[in-house]
Amino acid sequence: MTTIDLENAKQIRQPMDVIIQVLMEETATLTSTYTGEKVADGVLNQPDWEMRKLADLQWNGFELDGSAVLYDSTVTASAANGKIGVRGNIGQPVTVSVTASASVDRLTVSATGCRAVEYNGVSYSMRNGYAIIPIGGTSAVFVFQPETDTKRVEVSDIRPGVQMRITNDNLISAVVSLRSDLSILEPTLPESEINIEAYMDEDYSELLASIPDETPITYQAGYPGDMSPLRKFYLAEQITWADNIMSIHAVDAVHLLDGDSKADICSYMSTWTRQSSLRSVTEILRVFLYDAGISYENPDRQSSSYIIYDQTAQRDDRGDEWITLYKQSSVRDIIAKLTNYLHQDLPSGLFSNRTNVWLSYVDAGIPTIYFNKPIAKWDVYENDTGEGNRNVSREINRINVERSKLTIDNIGGRSKGSGTWIYGSGAFLQYDGEPMHALYVRDSKDSFITGLYEGLPDTINGVASNPNQTATQSAGDVWYMIGDIPEGILIRQLSGNTHKLYNQVIPWTAAHATLWRQDYGSSRDDQTLTLTGTSFEEHLTNNSYGSGDNQANIKEEIIVGKIGTRGDDSANNNYELYPSGAYESLLQRSNITGSFTWKGDPRMQPRDVFTFHRLDGTDEECTLENITITHEKGGTSAEITYRKGVC
Amino acid sequence: MIGVFNTITIDGTEIYRGNDFTLQRENIYAGEIETCTGKRCADLVGWRYADLTISWDALPQDQLNAILALTGEQVNMTFSNEANETVTETVIPRALTSTVTRLTDPQGHVMWKNLQLQIQFIEAHN
Predict the structure, then answer these.
(1) What is the CATH number assigned to the segment(s) A27-161?
(2) What's the number of domains chain B is made of?
(3) Does the beta carbon of A382 lie under 8 angstroms from any beta carbon of chain B?
(4) Tens digit of each residue's pLDDT (9 = 90 or more) over A558-572
(5) Inter-residue contact A579 to A347 (CB < 8 Å)
């Protein structure tokens, strides 16, 4: 058990430490020299390292528990060893001269046992353990004055820029709202935020006014040795200052996703039935995130290229092919929808070493893409929770479609040629002015969708009148699906053609339409998508998908409630992640949600799964939707909302 | 100390400690929630001295003057605590109760009898 767990098990808990930092860093390399009597020189500029605790026979002595070590100049400073700052003699000031490689506006100096630091004839209070000193040059000389005649100055860190620390000593309140959205339909990707009020000794009003938006604000809470992961937020508005109290409002990186994607992006993947497809979708997710400004921590993985993965994989002659068109639209919506669909358990043996697909994106200050179904990570006892409530919403078992809102989408704009083409004027359906998200072409080889849209084949059968239709297709083989794959259109290609897999996601432009005309029998062209074929063409060249009488037959409702079949054709390795698996998974999500107040655990993350130990003795797994942690008056409490089940 | 008597210092004036000077500590809780079963959970963030009423049988005129001069604003009070350590706390004098019984000792010193001063401690300790 960790310390947070131990403390949370108590009725009366020790207060948590909260560490918040405002980091407006400047770029410069610092070199320092120290003058005067001193005990030890050490490494500065490693702010994340703890100070090494030295046995001090001159000062207050040291504990006999072994936590303090004798100063050993041969032990190099490191994260594990800690660092030695510059330690002066007892009651004596320490003078540090700093030279910066480039002009810096400010330096942040940190020290303990220090009352004030003097620079340029001005004395700055060190009551909070640090001071932010305006420099406006490349060199500075600081004199650190000891707190009392019996204290030893330990200078721990000097860094360019601003590093403002807020701890329990000066924190008035910090409210951290970490959010996700587990709605079954139309989920959003909500922003997480932090609101901070803190009392500062010095007048920082001028400094704060110069701190720009997007300045990182880090947050951590917990107990020594068991702190939550460092969450990073970004300043959303000017820090306000009144009566030495500063108010900070910052949001997580999701706010970067507010804009539209760069272009229509067309992704071709062998099927939604394979692991490669999952990888492909994941990579697409990364592209959207990267383009919006959220990058990998590992720079080797950073790429803005639309080339998603290697082009060596080759599709074999089975299954289906899909093109997904992500129309230029809100990145936030695209990601919310993408990550909402691919949450499902898989039959064994279909995906090597994979028993589930659980793609999700969570930010909450730590942007992360998850692949696997989460397992219960936390235990919450209802006995310890207060003000709980539980809601049961109406079960969703169908999606209503108003026929009057179904229109033809002319985005293709190509007329039919003599050869093969797939993107024709009016080939796509719109619903309520929005492109329909999936156009489903059924292959006679596959039967998995028969259970999906019962009743639909009789309603959209305009294709039957298309002279290009092959004999193998019967009326109703073109099915239009109302879904909301992110503003995109899915085209499933018939099987039977030996198309190769071109692992590309290309920006969709009108020019690309011509690329698609290439003969499927020709050799592979890595720069284009070759997605033509007789049968394929026949379906998609139909620009009168439901004209005349047939169109009138479209029913008001499309029932997608209980889905019986899901393409679990192991012989064909043909498992359908989307749409049938996705919708089945969605509709099977619990309609029970709830909320409660609790002591709080800052390590918790939206979409984490916890075991909820109910008062009646039963246990249930729940997925955490939102957690709001409130640190106030030194105490911590939390409000949690959840949805039952793993979703 | 004044002579052999224990004293406290309020706002810089040394005053007899009083015959009733019982210090009590009270805990400070934050983040309190009441659970669905009625249990109260909280973080123990610190303690402070509980409100205190100091009473004297009698105080000399100059010490009474010092107490009367307190205006209700926060002042420092120095006293010896339970562990007999001298500590200084920031306090707010809340109320002074006194009778008008005045007596003069044989040496001519004016004394006031039966005085009570209510003190609120405002500093929290971790």
Answers:
(1) 2.60.120
(2) 1
(3) yes
(4) 222 222 223 333 333
(5) no
